[in-house]
Amino acid sequence: MHPQPNRRTTHAYGTPKNLLVYDRWGASGRPVVLLHGLFYDRTMWWPVAADLGGSCTAVAVDLPGHGDSARRDEYCLDRLTHDLAMLLSRLDLRRAPILVGHAEAARVAETFAAKYAVHSVITVAGAGLDDVPEAYRQFAVARPDQELADAYRERLLPRQTTATLQVDLGDSFPHLRDPAAFAALLRNVR
Question: Tell me, what's the pLDDT at 162?
Answer without folding.
Answer: 44
